[in-house]
Specification:
With 852 residues, the protein is α/β, with parallel strands linked by helices. The protein is built from 30 helices and 28 strands. It has four domains: 17-93, no CATH class; 110-411 and 705-720, Glycogen Phosphorylase B (Rossmann fold); 451-595 and 610-621 and 629-684, Rossmann fold; 738-851, Immunoglobulin-like.
């Protein structure tokens, strides 16, 4: 028997000093969005580059001595390496202080928490759009020199790799990630020992290691429980992304939230702004409270208020089923000891994450915990904001839906990570290098119109050709694995046509995304695909969740249909959807199809990536496309209708897709001039690129987060922490008194003359008589809530006017103000009373509101 006290060690090649820049650059993910760096590593050994999963560190570590000696003799390679390395050093050294446009700059760090990050091909620690968005967010923060650190989990097996059996049924495999061959470094103490932190789970302490993943200028600290210091069950906590049962998911979120805050603290990093990307990291709130109570002797309520004013939350989920919810018994057994250490009851804890503070039997909702303890909350598109306000209205039941404090910051993409080398080279020539550094600059992207149609079209055609070649190769590999006949494998080399109009559809095969909508009428689709003069082809890719049997069945139905004679080699499914497959598809498709069931797509970003590469979007007006669509940049499937009968909706919208293809899209694509160029199509490509790229990019998105969330949070924190948190102690005491006496506040009378008609230019004079009890006029904000009303006397729009002037008479406070009459129509007003305090970040946070 082999003894289990194995001594582990890693053997790496010894690089000549002249080649050390290769090793240094391979350890920073800056390489993954810089085409020249990728070309440098690929030139060393193209086959090894692909075999390594586009992992420069893994590739360099596998180079043999002979190849290393060849590189040392290759002056051209060394010269190119020096040039690229110089750009890398310039980028990393250019850490100009970001003054945020303030007269008195604030020095602060943002901590960004996410359960998944989609960063580069060799790190499969993401499952879908949430992770890709997080990766793009961090990359733009690096480019913009935003002072940020990231926190996540380092999954031993990550998300599954997909393969299909001969029947087209999705299978999953979970290969191990070899961290020691990936661009990620274990954090160590002065003695060279791995740094670990303790995280309380159930009745024991779990040891968590800290790894650093450098993304340009931004460090990501990734947490890992797979150490021999832990019991077997605890080593598996960070094994699979979104794997296991509810108990395992809860443990993961404890490690991410509580462990993440402890890791930063242990490393000596003191962020003052925290951003929770979805509710998975909401337990970070608890540990921040815990630290403030320990270090500054604050009460739980005082520490909670301090944490609230500097916490930010982004929700990505438009349906309740997508939210993590944990039952009380599970929380008590897993986290009860930690909750007790905070000095609060289990009921107090649950009140932080349930709709009603007094609900003693409701489970813990992680999204609600994040929302109730974050000063800023945002959805990820304008439509998603509306959906989220409706979805969470029961938390703010005293507020009109449009006043619920959920705002919007629409997602964007990190364009340099997604644009093809061919297109990037073309843009460099006509837009200048700044298109990559300043992608939201409208004037720069207007130069797209300078690109000759011929060059733009030929560039796009090359990418379509490469997509077709890639799809053929993957199809042949798939057939070989199935043991298909040689004649079938050879035939796959002729699948698709590099000159044919190509539609791309790639995403998670969740039910609401309707992956088979375009297949609903096979006969009509077959006729479209096989038009001898104007043919079309469709390339699918995507994964279904391992437990999603319906999603797997959709994939299977596509495979079966693709084998029928009328669809053979016209419809292709590329298995094992990942970042590499996604790039081929968004860079080579002519039309990007997206047909979710409105309004269930929070945002979606794949269409943005396709547009940056010149593809045109055809999509339901859901998510980002509801605000991005305009005439001439793509096509809308419907007009934003929402249906109660899903089958009827599928029927209507599938027919709309066929109509668009037959009557508009296909004729436009094949309408060629004497130069054989589709002039109107290329005009749409240019308009789409300059319209969408300037707005839907992650530089703009991160800038919005900085100015609308991070900066206000940093300013709030600096006010709160003055004089060792004296301000927050006073604020908490005031809040306690306010709650005790709020019931005494009463609107006694409204005085105004609205019986007569008013005229434009006049004002409605208003007096509000109030009984305040033991509160003062400075403890409240009395507002006139007014606007145009419809025939049912419901507000069409609304605005507020604070009543600043007040006086006293007979122990009553009289507040005065006026509403200007600026336009004709039917109007109405209400009186609204909210708490008011100079340090109160959001008056809605107390749950106290009084309406006339």
């Amino acid at each position: 028997m082999i003894p289990n006290n194995l001594v582990l060690y890693t053997v790496l090649p010894k690089l000549h000093e002249r080649l050390l820049p290769l090793m240094e650059m391979s350890k920073n993910l800056w390489f993954c969005w810089n085409i020249e760096v990728i070309d440098l590593y690929r030139s060393i050994d193209p086959n090894l580059w692909d075999e390594s999963g586009h992992n420069p560190l893994g590739m360099v570590n596998r180079l043999d001595t002979a190849r290393l000696d060849d590189l040392l003799e290759d002056e051209g390679f060394l010269s190119e390496m020096d040039r690229v390395y110089g750009e890398f050093k310039r980028y990393m050294g250019d850490r100009k202080p970001y003054d945020f446009g303030l007269d008195s700059p604030i020095d602060f760090t943002v901590a960004y928490f996410s359960a998944e990050y989609g960063l580069t091909d060799c790190l499969p620690i993401y499952s879908g759009g949430l992770g890709i968005l997080a990766g793009d967010h961090v990359k733009s923060a690096s480019d913009l020199c935003i002072p940020m650190v990231g926190v996540g989990l380092l999954y031993q097996k990550g998300y599954f790799r997909q393969y299909l059996n001969i029947d087209g049924w999705q299978q999953e495999k979970y290969p191990d990630n070899d961290f020691h061959m990936l661009p990620i470094m274990l954090e160590r103490d002065r003695n060279g020992e791995p740094l670990t932190i303790d995280v309380p789970i159930e009745n024991r302490t779990v040891k968590v290691r800290i790894w650093r993943l450098q993304v340009g200028r931004v460090p990501l600290f990734m947490l890992d429980t797979n150490t021999i210091l832990n019991a077997e069950e605890d080593r598996d906590i960070t094994s699979h992304l979104y794997g296991g049962d509810k108990r395992m998911r809860l443990k993961q979120e404890i490690v991410l939230g509580i462990g993440g805050v402890r890791a930063l603290h242990h490393l000596g990093i003191r962020p003052i702004v925290f951003h929770m990307n979805e509710g998975h990291s909401a337990f970070a709130i608890l540990e921040r409270i815990h630290l403030l109570m320990e270090e500054h002797l604050l009460s739980f309520e005082e520490a909670r208020e301090a944490v609230y004013c500097s916490s930010n939350f982004t929700t990505h989920t438009p349906v309740p089923a997508g939210i993590d919810i944990f039952e009380r018994a599970l929380i008590s057994s897993t986290l009860g000891r930690y909750i007790h250490s905070l000095g609060i009851s289990i009921d107090t804890f649950f009140s932080m994450g349930t709709p009603n503070n007094s609900a003693a039997s409701e489970p813990l909702n992680m999204a609600i915990m994040a929302m109730k303890n974050a000063v800023h909350i945002n959805g990820v598109s304008e439509l998603h904001r509306t959906v989220s306000r409706r979805m969470w209205s029961h938390i703010w039941h005293d507020l009109p839906e449009r006043d619920i404090p959920i705002e919007t910051i629409t997602n964007g993409i990190h364009i340099p990570s997604w644009i093809s080398k061919d297109m990037a080279t073309l843009l460099d020539r006509y837009l200048g290098k700044r298109w990559a550094e300043d992608p939201d600059h409208i004037k720069i992207w207007e130069r797209v119109n300078r690109i000759p149609d011929l060059e733009l079209w030929r560039t796009h055609e090359r990418r379509r050709e490469r997509l077709v070649a890639f799809a053929r190769q993957r199809l042949q590999e798939q057939l070989s694995r199935w043991g298909s006949k040689k004649i079938e494998i050879r035939a796959a080399a002729e699948a698709l046509n590099p000159q044919t109009l190509t539609i791309g559809f790639a995403r998670r095969f969740a039910t609401y995304k309707r992956g088979n909508l375009i297949l609903r009428d096979p006969d009509r689709l077959a006729k479209i695909l096989n038009d001898p003069q104007r043919p079309m082809q469709i390339i699918f890719a995507g994964k279904a969740h391992p437990q999603d049997q319906y999603g797997k069945e959709v994939i299977r139905s596509i495979i079966h249909l693709s084998r029928q004679p009328e669809f053979f080699h016209k419809v292709v499914f590329i298995e094992d959807y990942d970042l590499n497959v996604a790039r081929y598809l968004v860079q080579g498709s002519d039309v990007w199809l997206n047909n979710p069931q409105r309004p269930l797509e929070a945002c979606g970003t794949s269409g943005m990536k396709a547009a940056a590469n010149g593809a045109l979007n055809m999509s339901v007006l859901d998510g980002w496309w509801a605000e991005g669509y305009q005439q001439g940049v793509g096509w809308a499937i419907g007009n934003g209708e929402e249906y109660e009968n899903q089958d009827y909706q599928d029927q209507v919208e599938s027919q709309t897709i066929y109509n668009l293809l037959e009557k508009t899209i296909i004729p436009l694509f094949y309408e060629r001039g004497r130069d054989n160029l589709p002039a109107e199509w290329t005009a749409m490509m240019k308009k789409s690129m300059q319209t969408i790229a300037t707005q839907f990019n992650s530089h703009r998105m991160v800038g919005d987060y900085v100015h609308r969330m991070y900066l206000p949070s940093a300013i709030n924190w600096n006010l709160i922490r003055t004089d060792d948190f004296t301000s927050v102690r006073d604020l908490t005491s005031w809040m306690k008194d306010l709650r005790a006496h709020w019931s005494q506040v009463e609107i006694v009378e409204k005085r105004t003359d609205t019986k007569r008609s008013m005229h434009v230019g006049e004002s409605v004079i208003i007096e509000v008589v109030m009984r305040l009890g033991q509160l003062s006029p400075h403890d409240i904000s009395v507002d006139i809530y007014y606007g145009r009303v419809d025939s049912k006397a419901e507000f069409i729009d609304r605005a507020t006017i604070p009543l600043r002037d007040f006086s006293f008479a007979d122990n009553l406070a009289i507040f005065r103000g006026e509403i200007p009459c600026k336009e004709v129509g039917r109007f109405g007003f209400l009186v609204r009373v909210l708490p008011a305090h100079p340090l109160l970040s959001k008056p809605y946070s107390l749950g106290l509101i009084l309406w006339s």
